[in-house]
Amino acid sequence: MAKISVDGVEFDAKEGENLLQAVLSAQLELPYFCWHPSLGSVGACRQCAVIQYADEEDTQGRLIMACMTPVADGMRVSLEAAHARDFRASVIEWLMENHPHDCPVCEEGGECHLQDMTVMSGHTARRYRGNKRTFENQYLGPFLNHEMNRCITCYRCVRYYQDYAGGTDLQAFGSRARMYFGREEAGVLENPFSGNLVEVCPTGVFTDKPFSKTYTRKWDLQSAPSVCAGCAVGCNTIPSERYGRLKRVHNRYNGSVNGYFLCDRGRYGFGYVNDDARIHKVGVRAADGVFDVISAEEGEEKLGDIVRDGAIGIGSPRASLESNLALKVLVGEENFCTGLSSAEDALMRLILDVYECGGARIPTLAQVEEADAVLILGEDVLNTAPRVALAVRQSVRNESLEMAEQAGIPLWQEAGVRSHGRESASPLLVASLLPTELDELATHTCNGAPESLAAAGFAIAHRLNSAYAAGEELDGPTQSFVDDAAAVLSRAKRPLVISGTSLRNDGLIKAAANIAWALKAQGCDAGLLLTAAEANSCGVGMLGGGVDLDTALRAAAAGQALVVLENDVTRRADPDLVASAFSGSTAVAVLDSLENATTESASLVLPAATFAESTGTFVNYEGRAQRFFEVFAATGETAPAWRWLSKAGARAGRNDMHWQHVDQVVEAVASHPRLVGVADAAPNGGHRNAAGNRVPRAPHRYSGRTAMNAGVNIHEPKTQVDEETPLSYSMEGAMGDQPAALTSYVWSPGWNSNQSVFKFQQEVGGAMAGGDPGVRMLDAEPAQVDFAQRYRPLQTPIGAEGDGRFKLLPTHSIFGSEELSGRSQPIAERGPQAFIVLGAAEAARLQVAEGMGVRCPELDATFAVRVEESLAEGLAVVAMGLGGLGDEVPSERVTLEPDPEFVPPTTLIARG
Amino acid sequence: MSSSSKPLTERIETENGLVDLAAYQRAGGYDAARRVVTSMTPEEVQDLVKDANLRGRGGAGFPTGVKWSFVPKGDAAGPGHKYLVCNADEMEPGTFKDRYLLEYDPHLLVEGMIIGAYAIQADKAYVFMRGEYHEGFRQLSRAIDDAKAQGFLGSNVFGSDFSVDLGIHRSGGRYICGEETALLNALEGKRAQPRYKPPFPPASGAWGRPTIVNNVETLCNVPGILRHGAQWFQDLGNGDDAGTKLYGVSGRVNRPGLWELPIGTSIREIIEEHAGGMQAGYQLRGLLPGGASTDFLVEQHLDLPMDYGSIQAAGSRMGTGTMILMDDSICPVAMSVNLQHFFAQESCGFCTPCREGLPWLESLLIDIEEGRGNPGDLDVLSANASYIGAPGNTFCLHATGAMEPLNSALKYFREDFEAHIERGGCPYREGSA
Questions:
Q1: DSSP secondary-structure letter at A623?
Q2: How many helices (H) does chain B have, and how many strands (E)?
Q3: Contact A18, A71 (CB under 8 A)
Q4: Weakest-pLDDT range from A448-452, A645-649, A747-751, A795-799
Q5: A-chain residues near B72 (CB < 8 A)
Q6: Would you call A653 an interface residue with chain B, using a CB distance cutoff of 8 Å?
Q7: A128 touches chain B (CB under 8 A)
Q8: Residues 315-354 of chain B whose Cβ lies under 8 A from any Cβ of chain A
Q9: What phi and psi values does residue A626 have, to the nearest 5 degrees?
Q10: Are the C-beta atoms of A515 and A497 separated by less than 8 Å?
Q11: Which CA distances in Å does B232 have to A852, B5, B221, B237?
Q12: Nearest Cβ partner of A45 from B344, B352, B367?
């Protein structure tokens, strides 16, 4: 710790940290543009100028850029000195020469960092008499608007997009006062983390396109802290509503999880909340096969009737723990299934078994970034748990950070660090079914069928420690990958092994565990990250069910009543089995938010709230319980599923589930020994700040509440009261002193943009004040087990059977594979056409080439062909969730035939 | 090579034009390099250049031997290449001294680079050449080929175990490429934006490796030093500085041109004796002593020696030593417009004061020149010029250099600026109108 004097007041600061960060951490005000806590300092904007004095005698001092100056003990600086203030005002004046005066119609308006900094710097009168420069804007795809005239040339966009996210198609063009940030030519910005530009850009160059289409003033948004429902990473988000529609999703900083950045699925995948296919009424199937609308009370009664004499309950990895628990209690554990497919359920149990052995650390995303060697075994994380891939991308920098440290370059001196150590990267080893986007960073890669990858994994563990059994013989390239991996991983101090469930192969998970455990036994701080598919896969896994999905469906087929919770089971089980369950069951009650193939087959449909209209808990891949809060009240009869289930239970005469408030359900969840931590994931409904106030969902600038409804009725409707959570439907209440888990928006006086988040952090870029949200529930001390013997390699036959048929394997797309986000318009627009990947030999045998079509009669589906040289004979890889496929590939081999009728869709871009 | 008073240009004069390999060797060329590579240690070379007090001829005047000594030696350098880069991106307005050497005595540079590369143990050397220097490129390319054919470049130079490859990179053409770190970025194929220092290039330069960037004229001085010794070089100069200097004069003089003279020759001698004095009917009003980015000097400074210290003491810089004269027919405001247009156009666009500040100053100057100036404009000009011009306020020294002629113009020719605003037009144009 160093002591620095700022305008005569002494502060503690970290020695060597850049002065800007230190000043902001001390909660002082200093304007800046080009610096970003995750992107470091480059000294481009010159906005954070301060005066530094040599010693106590020095009254003159000299102007320095705080972001480029390391903190030293005894340092004396002034933010307020006239020369510093004047220079900062000049910088703004220079930036504003060409910045258009379109603030009233600018999408950034109301949360514009440039606006805040302009006010803070005191530039109020215009002296520049020249014309403003203008540029032509580009079409950048469905996610982002481009308005280059507003650009202040801070270089953040390209530094984020290229350096941080690894994108190549956004670049800095031109020079002098004609710098242009865009693509070589108009077109979709390709990087799947492009949406962060909305928050990275300090003004309105890159703005949120879906939001703009139904624009609302930022201060009229009603928001709540939430958790992304897009995958198992559990990024923290702030979804915002106006007039009953979800308008946008922004990042909610969590230092341990997502930091400052989301993936584009998470940011743009919420559109289904506003979808026309939303179910808002209770429907019961009449004799003519058509749904009749009935009242909520009738619905409760009917659901009560269905479960009274026992029913099978199918839960859901995309529903809250609270709703899953309600169903579990309603039908009883022995009749409850997690809703995961049977294959995935088995893998989830395996993952929990691995974690409960406590053999290796489960890393947070922040810890992923710190890993000095990463092995990815089988999981295409960019497409299954995207934010993990962005973290892995940062981990490969560690080697160059070490080099910079040795060369005396401060780690925040971004350009110097990147230039000096550019040829050094920490090892990244990727073993995957198909080549992945991360391969470009990988020091070693290897492709193969899941069984081969698992065999490679077992062999790596064996090489690290011969007590772990090796699997089958490996081919030459795989063996050399194994040798390299063992060598590289055992040299690392913080190695990390990543795998997951997406290939539906237990060998991968077991092998990953063996490797991590073998590394741990060598004395290093090994991490093991196992991803699952959905926001609450881990949660339902921990809640557990008495039966798996296939068994549940068979029971239904045999005549049991069925209650399906937020789950399109047709995506997760064999179609014939699902069909027999629907036809054989005495009654199929479905609670869901959107029409789908399962609601189509239901006898009773109850409208369930989405994440945006309900409060609940998701458990992410690391076992972190995180609460999401109702952003706005559901319309119509829509209600959180747990409430329907609880009411039905009451109707059915149950006295153990009279839950009125979500906190009561949370309590019930927390009574499960594995899920005790859920209770502390966020403060309960009774939480008030010191002044006795709730946390408002709307900022204090929220306007027009009294007029909102005036077109219908001039009497102001009664303000909605939130009976359940510590949040209020109001702009009044606690401001700034809320616990991190209750951050419904970030705002601080003078800081209207998301840059204000530093006001709520312990230090800039660190944990949130009071600790990052969420409770980790899977951290375990090493169990008394024989780690080396726990998971043995399986001898699995690999290869074609020579009958010309294909074993289908799954692959995933960040856009389109996940069910709900895939039904959101901008995501669907970015999703690929349904495709199938064939090896070169098989493509030749079928006489098809890249871009041609292939039909699968068993699936009644057509795919565009992609050819991947390395894929073995007898295998074909299909993208899940696309072209009518669900989340599972058929276990039976299928036939494929060329489809001469196939017409690839035109690639014309719809501009707009 | 005789112990001449003009080590840079004597062969060109003897040959009355291009010095080819045969001519260069006839004059003792490559003897120094051969001796260095086969019988001296790198440290001995560095020490000799230090003792000679050779200072960078690109404008900054940093002692060359000292710069070389910053390159990490042996294992400290880590694995990989070391680079010697010759800055031949001569884009300073009014400056054509390096061009002269490149076009007429290219082997002198090649020999200087072999010695320089040996001194820092660089195995890769590049000449970063101004894109418009077509003739220089032709001559240097041939010289490199000829030297390579003789075994002076490439593997096992002069049969020693020292190897160095020399190549030419032709610049895409930006003034900022003369800034050594922007040059390195451009050499790597990146945007020509300067880098933050530290790390300095000797520690982390081209491709993150130890790198020395030297000007053409600097490197061309090296063979002579190695041949004739430090004392000889010291004795060539007048005053504190050592060696000769290529001085140039542009403007309304009788014989504009370029001369190799002892460093420290007075401005008056250069203008009056070598450039033949002002043309009849023209009075000297001011001069930029070393390129567009140096402060104006005026009549009172004419007897100053053109060396680093004296010109700096007078509030300017010797820069490249090639001066631009402003006579009494030229409007100082119009000249400032021209200069600021150049600097605004050549800003790389990285930092705000330079990117946005310079065009504003240019437009204000245009307003003043064209009669649209307001009484407050000079205050705005001065305030901005002081914010933009203070070293450290901008990312690199481009804008600092840009403000040198403007600040000094406002100091020495203020009445011209005021007259423009008062009259609502340019007094220099009124006569012709």
A1: -
A2: 20, 8
A3: yes
A4: A795-799
A5: none
A6: no
A7: yes
A8: 344-353
A9: -135, 135
A10: yes
A11: 78, 10, 12, 9
A12: B352
Q: What are phi and psi of A304, to 5 degrees?
A: -60, -45
User: From CA A793, how far away is CA A482, in angstroms rounded?
Assistant: 15
Please check whether residue B181 touches A, CB under 8 A: no
- Please tell me the distance in Å from A68's CA to the nearest CA on chain B: 9
Amino acid code (one letter) for A535? A
Whether B203 contacts chain A with CB within 8 A: yes
Q: Which fold has domain A136-212?
A: Alpha-Beta Plaits (3.30.70)
For testing contact with chain A, the best of B174, B179, B204 (most A CBs within 10 A): B204
Q: What pairing do the DSSP bridges indicate for beta strands A49-53 and A76-78? A: antiparallel
* DSSP bridge partners of A624: A776
Is A421 an interface residue toward B (CB < 8 Å)?
yes
The complex's ipTM works out to: 0.95
Residue in B106, B113, B105 with CA at minimum distance from that of residue B37: B113
CATH code for the part of the protein at A2-98: 3.10.20.740
Q: Which residues of B touch A128 (CB under 8 A)?
A: 360, 363
- What's the gap in Å between the CA of B125 and the closest CA on chain A? 19
Mean pLDDT in consecutive groups of 10 residues from the start of chain B, 433 residues: 80 95 96 97 98 93 96 90 97 95 98 98 98 97 98 97 97 93 96 94 95 98 97 93 96 97 97 97 97 96 96 95 96 97 97 98 97 95 96 96 97 97 91 46
**Which positions ≥6 away from A699 have C-beta within 8 Å?**
A219, A221, A731, A745, A747
Residues of chain A positioned with their CB less than 8 A from the CB of B357: 90, 94
Task: Please tell me the class of the B3-235 domain.
Answer: alpha beta
Q: For position A711, what pLDDT does the model report?
A: 84
Average pLDDT over all residues of chain A: 95
CA distance A788 to chain B (A): 40
- Let me know if domain A277-338+547-622+633-671 sits in CATH 3.40.50.740: yes
Taking residues A188-196, what's their average pLDDT?
98
pLDDT in tens, A519-534: 999 999 999 999 999 9
The pLDDT tens digits of the residues spanning A754-803 come to 999 999 999 999 999 999 999 999 999 999 999 999 999 986 666 667 78
Give the mutation candidate from A69, A97, A133, A176 for the B interface (greatest B CB count, under 10 A). Answer: A176
For chain B, what's the residue count?
433
Q: Do A179 and B384 touch (CB under 8 A)?
A: no
Query: Residue B349 and residue A178: Cβ atoms within 8 Å?
Result: yes
Which value, to the nearest 10 degrees, does the dihedral of the CA atoms of residues A312, A317, A323, A325 take? Answer: 70
Q: What is the signed CA dihedral for A654, A656, A661, A663, rounded to 10 degrees?
A: -160
Delimit the CATH 2.40.40.20 region(s) of chain A: 807-898
Which of B359, B392, B395 is the closest to A177 by Cβ?
Answer: B359
| Residue of A35, A37, A38 lying closest to A68 (CA atoms) | A35
The whole-angstrom distance between B424's CA and the closest CA on chain A is 17
The number of C-alpha atoms within 13 Å of B224 and in the hemisphere containing its C-beta is: 29
Contact B208 A43 (CB under 8 A): no
Class of domain B244-327: alpha beta
Q: What is the CATH number of domain B332-423?
A: 1.20.1440.230
**Cβ-Cβ contacts under 8 Å for A711 (sequence gap 6 or more):** none
* pLDDT tens-digit readout, A285-295: 998 889 999 99
Sheet with B244-250, strands from edge to edge, namely B257-262, B244-250, B322-327, B284-288
Superfamily of domain covering A346-538: Dimethylsulfoxide Reductase, domain 2 (3.40.228.10)
Distance CA A333, CA B119 (A): 80
Closest residue of A to B193, CA-based?
A175
